[in-house]
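Standup notes, protein team

Yesterday: finished cleaning the Pantoea wallisii set.
Today: DUF2593 domain-containing protein structure.
Blockers: none.

Input for DUF2593 domain-containing protein:
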Amino acid sequence: MSETLKSAMLTSTPVPVMVAGIAIIATRCISVLMLANELGYDEMANFVHRSAQAWDSTLIFIASQLIFLFELRCAFTLMRGSNRGRWGYVAAQLVVLLYMLMASVGWIYPEIFSISGESNAQIIHHTLQQKLPDLLVLLLLFVPASSRAFFRSR
């Protein structure tokens, strides 16, 4: 194989990493569009207004927007081969999962982003079901040998 082709193969992004990055971007952007479509303009404005009523609700709302932007940034950086983007996405998922579990069980107030259920086991089950797509993305970033080699070489 020629040296040019070898260097091109070494610098190209592996398919699992590219799929994971695109999946992060697509799921986040589509979820925002679906939420906006479901709520409509009046309910979105009402949600933002309700979130701004107390400092703790405002803080959680701003943190959710920052995590959204952080996840998008991680997706773009991990597609370029940055290991920090990969681990940043892991950290963001852990923070989101912990907040959702604690808010849904009732340990943290306000419960802006919580999941309702009849028992704690059902709440945990529903929360973990909602995080399955993110788990699959994490598997794409950490399990295939091409993904591990891509981030090790950078």
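Follow-up from PR in the comments: The chain has seven helices and no strands.
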